[in-house]
Design goal:
Largest sheet: 6 strands, antiparallel
InterPro entries: Met_Sox_Rdtase_MsrB, Met_Sox_Rdtase_MsrB_dom, Mss4-like_sf
CATH class: Mainly Beta
Distance between the termini: 41 Å
Keywords: Oxidoreductase
Radius of gyration: 16 Å
Protein name: peptide-methionine (R)-S-oxide reductase
Strand order of the largest sheet: 3-4-8-7-6-5
CATH topology: Metal Binding Protein, Guanine Nucleotide Exchange Factor, Chain A
Number of strands: 9
Oligomer: single chain
Organism: Nitrosomonas cryotolerans ATCC 49181
Order of helices and strands: HHHHEEEEEEEEE
Structural class: alpha+beta
GO cellular component, one term: cytoplasm
CATH superfamily: Peptide methionine sulfoxide reductase
Number of domains: 1
CATH architecture: Beta Complex
Strand content: 15-25%
Helix content: 10-25%
Length: 172
Amino acid sequence: MKRRTVLQGFSVLVALPLIPACSRSPGAGEASSLITPLKKPHEEWRALVSPRAYQILFEEATERPESSNLVYEDRDGTFICAACYLPLFESANKYESWTGWPSFTQPIAGHVATRIDFKMIWPRTEYHCVRCGGHQGHLFSDGPPPRGERWCNNGIALKFVPTDEPLPALRS
């Protein structure tokens, strides 16, 4: 175990010069001043979402590829955070990435925040709902033009609301 920790530490040192280049997409990860973050204890979130959704949203787990029906969702509508119901993505920005996870070309501006994680040793840009802090997925630079971004989301961290249905009230 100690050898692994030392190797991870070295990988972080090697990757440090890369952090500014991949830390976030300009503007996309900036929190809106109109969205007030919720300060809800984890016990309250645990009571509101399924055990698996809690693992993904608040313990930063990842679902298996192809495990979410949202991969195939192609109706017009809005994808909202499964925890607090903040709208995160519009269906117009969803595309088939063939990765097994719902993928988007961009989020709704100001509704996600990004940070670097080193869980896979190499730095990755992770993103969260700005309102509840729920982990959604990772941002990659292999998306379609013109932005070249792939916002790869855990399906269980989202709910889909078709255009002909009203968005649910935000959870407080």
